[in-house]
Every structure is written in structure tokens, then in C-alpha cells.
Automatic annotation (TrEMBL):
It comes from Minwuia thermotolerans. GO terms for biological process: protein processing. Residues 379-503 form the P/Homo B domain. Belongs to the peptidase S8 family. Furin subfamily. The keyword Secreted applies. This is P/Homo B domain-containing protein.
């Protein structure tokens, strides 16, 4: 047996395209479509790693990536600064230096994709400040299983291990065999002990043998639940003609330009020693190139959150990958319920989709779990049915699982006695109806119409397609024979399911894809949960979100409505990069605005509020409990206090508080305590605070009440709207809006918005009009100019301008000419 690699590197000269963005100055960057695809190689703009928006925060610093490959030219000007010679290894040359020698070139190209320095020279890597180290081995006749074992065992010293290699043949690298048992042990040892028990993250190339009828499930390196198998896509989003498919593929990276035959730009051995004459190669491709992209993204993930377990990294990549090539018939939705309101999209070609660095990093920042080898949970059962597999027939067998588990990986250890495995298709169907194809006529291809003629399958097959599903129920194994010769038997099989104990505490993840999937599936727009401590994680959203945890209240995510179902109680929520509004319910909530200028209101209960980056507004009301603000930034963030008679100024606020052990504690009118963690009284000289009285229930002025929303001016002169018996004060920049707020302008009409906010029409004394939009809490969002108000009257049914006519005013009748016996007129309709 010998290991194989993709060494093709089709070199083409491409003109450099200047960019106006504040991006790396490395001269080859503008041609690196995998990092930023503008269509420069003829592909589709946006089919890239979505990584440039990450680099302001994370560049891989402090994360070490091991590269098991042939040698790495670590003196290369684009690699030297990031290379660690103290931990590298050469198992082929039996020394401590993984320097490229002889015909080595593959490892140098891989290294540049991961961590080529942003030094203004050459290309740039995905994680250009990550540390890399080579672990040299030979390929083909130059390699041995012992070399691989040695290097695998050394991966406990790195955070991530990149493996752009694999074995040929079908079921050859079998971890049940004595030859490969040491490799299986090394993989498991690294996830158990690497990173101080958090686990080394294994990243493997899916392979380049699609045309040979190969599958990642025929290889235990690629299909191990300890590894991340990476597929390769073209720059237009199609799967490449060579990328090996399978139910164990996790994610995909873009490597191929020009219809799949081209590749990416990366480092090459200096001079003429590498693929081409020069220090960089344009055209490095295959899943060998896709894998280091995912390793680089993983370095960004671990810099963002070093406390993640290796299983967390796998799950983050699954839940953040985005669907491409939407017309591909291989896409399916599994039966999970925690991704964008429903199931995950899964594919035997793409795994969970194209890796998305920005979404993955945002999830990593906000991740609350720590899933490791030590706390992995499993359930399973086995059967020995000795079922005959007749020619051109199908047999099935079932295992029933009764124990609940938060499901991640599925393993099927199968033993089939058959004299021609190329006849066989093996599938596994979950209780929820999701099907994984585990064996698909090995070797069947354009050059082999009968497939592989070898005997028997005694192998561990795996699937990630059931991630997040309910494991309880009947799991059905199906084996089909597709030829009139060579029958066999299913001797035995076992089903092992891996994940976390089902504790009822759920994380519901929302990404920008919610806008697409919720538009086509209205059921995704309502979140239902049956108990436990639950969290909405919308950290991967890039636009503004309105998350209202009150059951039945209207919210909005990614341009689609979002509502908590009646009877459902969600305790926590975290938003994304937009200017978000987070509103709590009656229980103690934990709300986090993350990035953007956010509004946080915990409502009733003792809540914990975190604004995150940006200028945030924290809204508090006397009588709704005592809140803790974890990150109040004096002079940037603002407070809005409602319903207080005792605290009416910044001085009152300071006088009502004391410096406590953890920050400044303010006692409110009702005795509840507001805590500003990390803040002292001496820090409050630039406190931004405003005050909102509850809208008066009497002695107010009704401005307009003809429609569904009543517009009032309360006794303090502030504008208030009433809809459905609920009154909401209008605010801007944390303060109440009054009739005196804008000289010459008066608010004359209010209407409700579908997303829970309001439209407010202003009129100026000179006859101009402008429109405001607010969120559901009455806070100003935006304004725009409008034509005369009668344009709105037909929709609202309200006579806004008071002329007694709904809609366009009638024109006066005009006499054009009446000198003769016939009078010519223009009537009111013109």
C-alpha cells in the first residue's frame, strides 16, 4: 500500500487586478480568488472563503498548524516568519528538520495556503499570522506506514493537523487491520490529549478519485469521526470533477478556476526546485489545496475562542457552511431543528456546504459548549442477522435506539461476505427519514461498468448527515445488489451514535441563510422548545436583527419574520454584527448584542446584559427587576431609565449608587439593584443617561386616532403611540421625542409596520413632509422624504390631511373655452 497525493499544478500567468479595499498589500492577493472572489478568474463573485472581514480581528496568531506532507521550504520569504523549527520533524530523513528536499513541492504549496505572511511580498495565507511546522514523510515508494505513524503521534504538539494526502484503493486503509491500528490509535490519542485535552483538530483531504468510483467512506483516515474531511469546489460553486464524495464529508473550499482544471496561487520552492521556475505557483489544486484553506479557517476559529473542543470546531464548521450550487440534486435537508429554525442542508458532495470563515468565527466567539473526547457520549446496539443478499435484490435490517442523544456522528461497523463489492449499495436511514449512502458500488466508473471485483466489506462506515437529529427510533440498514451475479450475506453490523447527552438545553443557531430558508418554509419562522435552558445564537448574522423573547411578539432576522411560539421560554440570546434590538421576557435573561450599535432591554426579571462592541443603549424600567450590565462603556454606551421618580438626572444616578466589589451598584425606586460591572463612581463623569416616564393614561392630547394606531402627546409633551391597547413612547438617541424636539415640525400620523415597528409622518410648517420608521420599542431607526400625505391615505383609510377626502384631492373643474355655443372644460379627473 502506498499513500497518494495530488501533484498537478497547471501554471498560468494572470494579470494583477488592483483593489480599492484595505486588504493585504501582497502583490498576488488580487488574483487569489479563494480569499476574495470578484469574478477575476471567470467564476462567480462571492464563491470564496468569506475571510477578509475576519482579518481585522483574527489572523491565526497564537495557533499552531502541523503539516504532515513532504517537506516544507521553510526558508521561503513568505513562510519563514511563521515557521517553527523547534517542533518540526522529518520521519523520512530521520532528523528534526522537515526542509523540502529532492522532488518535494507539495508541502510548500500547502503551507502557503495556510500561512503565507502578509508581508507585502507574494501571496497571503488564510491565517497569515499562524505558526506552521512541517512533519515530513514520503509519498508512493518513498513512504512507509511507519513514517505516517511517527508523524501522527507528534500531532499532540500542535493545535491543528493538516493532511493533504490519502490512500488509493477501496477499504485499504482499514483501522480494523493490524497494519493501520497504530494510526487509529494516534488519531484518537491526539483528540484525547492534544491542546491539554481539548483535542488536536484533524483536517484531511477528501480525495481526488471521484472519477474512479471512490468515496470517503472507503478510507478510515477520511471518514473517522475524529477528522474533518474537506471537498473541493470550483470558483463558480460547482463541485469539481475529481472531489471524492461521501456521507462523512464535512465542508468544502474553493480551489478550481477555469472549469475545474485550474487552481490557486500559493508558495512554491524557490527557484526551479518546485513545480515551476519561480517562488510561487499558480494552479495548485485538488482537495490537497482545499484542506489547508479549512485548516487556516480553523486557526482563525481557535484564535477567536481557544477553549473550543475539537468536536466544537467540527460542529461550528457544519453549522456555518453555506449552500452553493443550489440546483445540485444532491442537496437535502436533514431533520435537525436547531439550524435556522429547522434542518441542516447536507450533501454527499459538499458536506454541509462551502466553508464560511466569518460565520464560523462569529459562532466560535459566542460558543458556550466545550465538547471534547472526555465528555463524548455514545449509544448503540448490534445485530448478526446472517441475511442473504441475492442478485438484483435488496435486504434490510433494523436497530432500534431507545436512549436520547444530541447526535453528531453515526458509525456503522459492517461485515458483508460478498464476492464482488462493486455490485453493492449500502444506505442507512434514520428514524427521521434522512438517508446516508455509505457504500455506492465501489469502483463503478466510466472505465469500469461493473465496479470493483474485490471480496467482502469488513469496515467502519460513518456519516455526519444526521447531525442534530433525534436518534430515538428505528435505524434501517439497506443493502442492494445491482447485478445478476455474485451474491453474498450480511453477517453482522453495529450502530454507534456519538454526541452529547440529551439534557434539554438547546442552542438555536441562525445565520444569514435564514432569510432564504425561512422564505421557503414558514414553519422555520416560529421557534418552539419544550424546556431546559435555551439560547438563540444569531452571532453569524451580518444584518440588523430584532429578537423579542416574549412569546408571540414579532421579531425579524435576515429580512424574515421571527417569533417565539406560545408556551416556549427562551432564556438567552446573542445577536450578530448589525444594529440589533434584543428584548427579554419575564424570566431572568442573558442578552448579548455582540457587534454593532445595539438596544438591549431585559424586561421583567433579573437580567444580564452585554452590549459587545459598538455604542449600545441599555433600557431599564423600575419595577422590572434588577439588571447587571457586564460591559458598560462610559461615554460610549448609554442608559435609558424609565419609571423612576427618585432618579431624574445623572447626579441622581450617581448619588443612588455605591462602589461594590464588582462595580457600581445603583438602588432603584423599588429596591432592585442595577449593577455596572467594572465601573466605579469616579468613572461616571461622562455618563450618558436619559429618562422615560411611562406614557400617561389620562390628560394627554390625542393628535390623530382615525386608524389602527393612535398618536398622542402625553402630559410631558412626548409623543406616544397606542396600538392594541399598548402604549409606546417614541425615542431617538435614548431620549423622548416631543413636540418641541424639531423646530417647525409636528408629528401628524402613525401607522404600524409588519415587523413590529411604526411609521410616523411629520409635517413642516412650510408644507414639507418626512417619514420616520421605528423599531417595536418606539426607537428611531431611519427617515426618508415622502410626497404629500394623501398618497398614504388609500392604504390607511385615514384622512391624514383633513380635506374630507381619502386619497388624491379632487381637482377644481377648469373652463378651457366658453365663447361659443359649446363650452370646453377639464373635469376633476383631468
Amino acid at each position: 500500500m502506498s499513500s497518494t497525493r495530488d501533484t498537478s499544478a497547471d501554471v498560468a500567468e494572470e494579470p494583477l487586478v488592483p483593489t480599492a479595499y484595505a486588504l493585504p498589500a501582497d502583490p498576488l492577493f488580487s488574483s487569489q480568488f479563494n480569499l476574495l472572489n470578484t469574478g477575476q478568474t471567470g467564476g462567480i463573485a462571492g464563491i470564496d472563503l468569506n475571510v477578509t472581514g475576519v482579518w481585522d480581528d483574527y489572523t491565526g496568531a497564537g495557533v499552531t498548524v502541523g503539516i504532515i506532507d513532504d517537506g516544507v521550504s521553510h526558508t521561503h520569504a513568505d513562510l519563514a516568519a511563521n515557521y517553527d523549527t523547534s517542533i518540526d520533524n522529518d520521519s523520512r530523513g530521520n532528523d528534526g528538520d522537515a526542509m523540502a528536499e529532492g522532488s518535494d513541492a507539495h508541502g510548500t504549496a500547502v503551507a502557503g495556503i495556510i500561512a503565507a505572511d502578509d508581508n507585502g511580498f507574494g501571496s497571503v495565507g488564510v491565517a497569515f499570522d499562524a505558526t506552521i511546522a512541517g512533519f515530513r514523510m514520503g509519498f508512493g515508494a518513498d513512504g512507509t506506514l511507519g513514517q505516517i505513524t511517527e508523524n501522527l503521534r507528534l500531532q499532540t504538539s500542535v493545535d491543528i493537523s493538516n493532511n493533504s494526502w490519502g490512500f488509493g484503493g477501496f477499504f485499504s486503509d482499514n483501522f480494523k487491520s493490524s497494519a493501520f491500528a497504530p494510526h487509529a490509535t494516534a488519531l484518537e490519542e491526539a483528540v484525547a490529549t492534544g491542546r491539554d485535552g481539548l483535542g488536536t483538530v484533524w483536517v484531511f483531504a477528501a480525495g481526488n478519485s471521484r472519477a474512479d468510483g471512490d468515496d470517503v467512506n472507503y478510507h478510515n483516515f477520511q471518514n473517522s469521526r475524529f477528522t474533518i474531511a474537506v471537498a473541493a469546489a470550483e470558483d463558480d460553486g460547482d463541485i469539481t470533477f475529481y472531489s471524492t464524495p461521501g456521507a462523512a464529508v464535512i465542508t468544502t473550499a474553493p480551489v478550481a478556476a477555469g472549469g475545474g482544471s485550474g487552481g490557486v496561487i500559493t508558495t512554491d520552492r524557490e527557484g526551479s526546485a518546485g513545480y515551476v521556475s519561480g517562488d510561487f505557483v499558480n494552479g495548485f489544486n485538488g482537495t490537497s489545496a482545499a484542506t489547508p484553506m479549512v485548516s487556516g479557517v480553523t486557526a482563525l476559529i481557535l484564535e477567536a475562542n481557544p477553549d473550543l473542543g475539537y468536536r466544537d470546531v467540527q460542529e461550528i464548521l457544519a453549522y456555518s457552511s453555506r449552500r452553493i450550487d443550489a440546483g445540485n440534486s444532491g442537496w437535502a435537508l436533514n431533520a435537525a431543528g436547531d439550524w435556522n429554525g429547522g434542518g441542516l442542508h447536507v450533501s454527499h458532495d459538499f458536506g454541509f456546504g462551502l466553508v464560511d470563515a466569518l460565520a464560523a468565527v462569529r459562532l466560535a466567539e459566542s460558543w458556550r459548549d466545550q465538547s471534547t473526547h472526555a465528555n463524548e457520549f455514545s449509544v448503540g446496539a448490534s445485530r448478526s442477522p446472517f441475511l442473504t443478499i441475492a442478485n438484483n435484490a435488496t435486504v434490510t435490517d433494523t436497530i432500534t435506539i431507545t436512549d436520547a442523544i444530541d447526535l453528531e456522528w453515526v458509525e456503522v461497523d459492517i461485515n458483508i461476505d460478498h464476492s464482488w463489492i462493486g455490485d453493492l449499495v449500502v444506505t442507512l436511514t434514520s428514524p427521521d427519514g434522512t438517508t446516508s449512502t455509505l457504500v455506492d458500488r465501489p469502483g463503478l466508473s466510466a472505465g469500469s461498468q461493473w465496479g470493483a471485483g474485490q471480496d467482502d466489506i469488513n469496515f467502519v462506515l460513518t456519516s455526519a448527515r444526521h447531525w442534530g437529529e433525534d436518534a430515538v427510533g428505528d435505524w434501517t440498514l439497506s443493502i442492494s445488489d445491482h447485478y445478476a451475479e455474485d451474491s453474498g450475506r450480511l453477517l453482522s453490523w453495529s450502530l454507534d451514535l456519538y454526541g452529547d447527552p440529551a439534557d434539554g438545553d438547546d442552542d438555536y443557531i441562525y445565520t444569514d441563510e435564514y432569510g432564504l430558508v425561512a422564505a421557503g418554509d414558514p414553519q422555520r419562522r416560529t421557534l418552539s422548545d419544550d424546556g431546559g435552558s435555551d439560547r438563540i445564537n444569531a452571532a453569524a448574522l451580518t444584518g440588523a436583527a430584532l429578537i423579542d423573547l416574549t412569546a408571540g411578539a414579532a421579531g425579524a432576522l435576515a429580512g424574515q419574520t421571527f417569533t417565539i411560539a406560545d408556551g416556549t421560554v427562551i432564556e438567552e440570546a446573542i445577536a450578530g454584527d448589525g444594529a440589533d434590538t434584543l428584548l427579554g421576557n419575564a424570566v431572568a435573561n442573558d442578552l448579548n448584542g455582540a457587534r454593532g450599535n445595539d438596544v438591549l432591554d431585559g424586561g421583567a426579571g433579573d437580567d444580564t446584559l452585554t452590549g459587545g462592541a459598538g455604542a449600545d443603549l441599555f433600557r431599564l424600567t423600575v419595577g422590572e427587576g434588577g439588571d447587571t450590565i457586564t460591559d458598560f462603556d462610559v461615554g460610549l454606551d448609554a442608559l435609558e431609565l424609565g419609571g423612576s421618580g427618585a432618579i431624574r438626572s445623572a447626579d441622581d444616578f450617581v448619588a443612588a449608587g455605591v462602589d461594590g466589589a464588582d462595580g457600581f451598584d445603583v438602588t432603584l425606586d423599588d429596591g432592585a439593584v442595577l449593577s455596572l460591572l467594572g465601573v466605579l463612581a469616579a468613572d461616571l463623569g461622562e455618563l450618558l443617561i436619559s429618562f422615560v416616564d411611562a406614557p400617561e393614561l389620562s390628560s394627554e392630547t390625542v393628535i390623530e386616532s382615525a386608524g389602527a394606531v393612535t398618536l398622542l402627546e402625553n402630559t410631558a409633551g412626548a409623543y406616544v403611540v397606542e396600538a392594541g391597547g399598548v402604549r409606546t413612547g417614541i425615542t431617538r438617541d435614548g431620549g423622548a421625542v416631543t413636540g418641541d424636539s424639531y423646530a417647525g415640525w409636528s408629528m401628524i400620523h402613525a401607522e404600524g409596520l409588519g415587523g413590529g415597528g411604526f411609521q410616523l409622518l411629520w409635517q413642516r410648517t412650510n408644507g414639507d413632509y418626512t417619514m420616520w420608521e421605528t423599531d417595536g420599542a418606539g426607537a428611531y431607526v431611519k427617515y426618508y422624504s415622502v410626497d404629500p400625505p394623501w398618497i398614504m391615505e388609500a392604504a390607511s383609510g385615514v384622512d391624514i390631511d383633513g380635506d374630507g377626502i381619502i386619497g388624491e384631492p379632487e381637482k377644481p373643474e377648469t373652463v378651457i373655452e366658453s365663447a361659443g355655443a359649446v363650452t370646453l372644460l377639464e373635469n376633476t379627473a383631468g
